[in-house]
Amino acid sequence: MPESKALLQAIQAVDVPPVTLMEVCGTHTMAIAKAGLKPLLAPKVTLLSGPGCPVCVTPARDIDACLTLSARPDVILTSYGDMLRVPGSARGDSLLKRRALGADVRMVYSPMDAVEVARENPCKKIVFLGVGFETTAPGTAIAVQTAKESGVKNFYLLPMLKRLEPALRALAASADFAVDGLLCPGHVASILGENGFQYVARSLRLPAVIAGFETEDVLLAVYRLLLQIREGAPALENAYPRAVQREGNTLAMATVETVFTPCDSLWRGMGMIPQSGLALKEDYAAFDAIKALDVCFEEEKPSACRCGDVIRGALPPEKCPLFGVCTPEDPIGPCMVSGEGACAARYKYGGSV
Amino acid sequence: MNDVITMDHGSGGKKSASLVQEIFLPAFANDALNALGDGAVLEGGANLVMSTDSFVIAPRFFPGGDIGKLAVCGTVNDVCMAGGAPKYLSLGMILEEGLPLDELRSVAASIAKAANEANVQIVTGDTKVVERGKGDGLYINTAGIGFLRHPGLSRERMREGDAVIVSGFVGDHGAAVMLARAELGIKSSLCSDCAPLTAMCASLAACGEAVRVLRDPTRGGVATALNEFVEDTPLCIELTEDAIPIRAETQAGCDLLGLDPLYCANEGKLVAVVDKEKAEEALAAIRRAPYGENAAVIGTVSARSPGHVLLLTRAQGTRMLSKLTGAELPRIC
Fold it and tell me: B129 and B278 in one domain?
């Protein structure tokens, strides 16, 4: 692969007017911030963060439901680390805080670890907070299957998984969407394959390049997007062939289909999007925490936090009125919490200096 | 909600600093403490250097070390960073009911070995036992006393143009412990860098006043330690990403867990700010000493962005490197 210096020169040499590109993956957001790419690409290329950070797209009412669950003495909550610091609708109230006050909240690296916690604690109900996109859905599905097959009856999933395609379609259809091309997420594409992203070019008529996560991967994808924009011919290109195949991971997709079925889902800042979530199928309904533990979701409360607009790429993080009041130490919105959040990236790594 | 201690308060980042600033400094303020160095220089017949540290690490045994070795190296290195030649250690142990005696023996042996290498004696100690469930197996506190050998080390003496040196590969301890803790079933050659820096600091002391300030970048990592050098000063530290020594397996382990080696703890490294005229000499002094063979100049002190640490990335971008803001939590995907 060419070096970043050569790629940057090539990008500057493409004859196009200034463009706005969106990266739809939190890992891309962090890779771009860590390499300090934004100032190097400006003013020719503006990079916006899209709805690709799993924590950021989770609505506050879902976090509130998790916090309520954590207060039940018969429940052990298990979660990926990212989720622990996200505040619900009350500032300062997070799973980390609840744990300090006595709730049994445990960080796990995999949903399979949560099944293990269930085996070790037969008198407790173990709830795994199932967040993430197509990348985490297969592992979550396998955990549920494992619990069923091995008779672990005290494991429950709180399904908050999201599907990217309906959200991207909704985003592209919104009135203030002004993006010239998409950097497609390499991790999700390693599951869904090139085929899973063809709709971006064919149906949304947007230039699209599947990108890896090294600095050079990102720059190469930006370069290829510029070429597509110059030619006026949107297409899907795979600039991450070392991980992404045409068909994707068919075994992983089949496992997800066995366990889950698409359902309507609420996104932070984007509202209810049809078929954008995953619910447990009837065969696995016994593992659904919502049903088994009577989880209630309140109405989403209004907030001055504009994470929703940040997630849609409609507002740069530093333009949010809470930016700076909301900090990684005392966050208000999820974009400031998650390691992948656009606000955290901006706050942590700064802009051009 | 009631304010309570959360894990973030133990991270070594901003929340830890707020505990010191809001609770401990107002309660105990004195000149020696207010300097907030890794150890305090005290007045007496000969000037003494003193430091203390507590060790609550899980797991207690990790690749490259254990809680005992850590308890010696942590305090010894703090005394070294304040310019002291460490001499005496106290050892306070809090044992949880049920701790296997074999494990305690093994930790004691490890303490003895590390103390021997660091040339310090355990001269006083205390043991308490708490009921099962009231502790996490074994906690250790050590306090160390040394004689001042390298006077005048202070961030106040940093100047524009000074060189920033790190004594070797960055982030190994944090990455090794996090990987061990994650129980991912991954075989890794990654080891903690836990080691006493007594000999390295003795070697550096020959550079005298050219060495402005030293710090061992433990919790919060190199990024946080360097921020502490420049915060509230008119100075800035500019680092070159390419120059920072990071092992490929540390980087890979961090990538896997969603961590950044620059924020991972080190237990056998120092960062030094040195007069640029003597930078090569200081670098050679570090490299000659045990554990210093991979030392490198990683940046310079400037006035470009006062109070900040900047990183010149491989892609030639520039970004801010802030302090760690809470305990590092692994990412989702």
Answer: no
Instruction: Looking at the structure, tell me whether residues B163 and B286 fall in a common domain.
Output: yes
Picking from B128, B148, B168, the residue at the C-terminal end of a domain is B148
Is A91 touching B (CB cutoff 8 A)? no
pLDDT above 50 (res A223)? yes
Do A65 and A138 sit in the same domain of this protein?
Answer: yes
Overall domain count for chain B: 2
Q: Tell whether B164 and B289 lie within a shared domain.
A: yes
Indicate whether A149 and A201 sit together in one domain. no
Say if the Cβ atoms of A81 and B331 lie within 8 Å: yes
Q: Give me the residues paired with residue B309 across strands.
A: B237
Residue B307 to residue A128: CA distance in whole angstroms:
42
State yes or no: cis peptide before A302, omega within 30 of 0.
Answer: no
Other CB atoms within 10 A of residue B27 CB: 7
pTM of the model: 0.84
Residue of A329, A330, A343 for testing the chain B interface, max B β-carbons within 10 Å: A329
Distance from CA of B176 to the nearest CA of A (A): 16
Q: How far is CA B95 from the centre of its chain?
A: 25
**Nearest alpha-carbon partner for B71 in B111, B27, B36:** B111
Same domain, B200 and B254: yes
Mean pLDDT for the stretch of residues B306-317: 93
A152 and A95 in one domain?
yes
Tell whether B143 is covered by a domain.
yes
Substitution target in B319, B321, B323 with the highest count of A β-carbons within 10 Å is B319
Q: What is the CATH number of the domain that holds B302?
A: 3.90.650.10
Burial of B185 (0-12, 13-18, 19+ CB in 10 A): exposed
Encode pLDDT of B46-89 as tens digits: 799 999 999 999 889 999 999 999 999 999 999 999 999 999 99
pLDDT over 70 (residue B99): yes
Do the domain assignments include residue A260? no
Q: Say whether pLDDT at A352 is over 50.
A: no
The whole-angstrom separation of Cα B211 and Cα B230 is 16
Query: Closest Cα to residue B326, out of B6, B23, B15, B57?
Result: B15
Identify the domain containing residue B49 by its residue range.
35-148
> Does the complex come out with an ipTM higher than 0.90?
no
Q: Is A220 an interface residue toward B (CB < 8 Å)?
A: no
Contacts of B308 in chain A (CB under 8 A): 350, 353
Q: Do B318 and A109 touch (CB under 8 A)?
A: no
| Residue B163, helix vs strand vs coil | strand
Domain count, chain A: 3
For residue A269, the model assigns a pLDDT of 82
- DSSP sequence for B103-116: HHHHHHHHHHHHHH
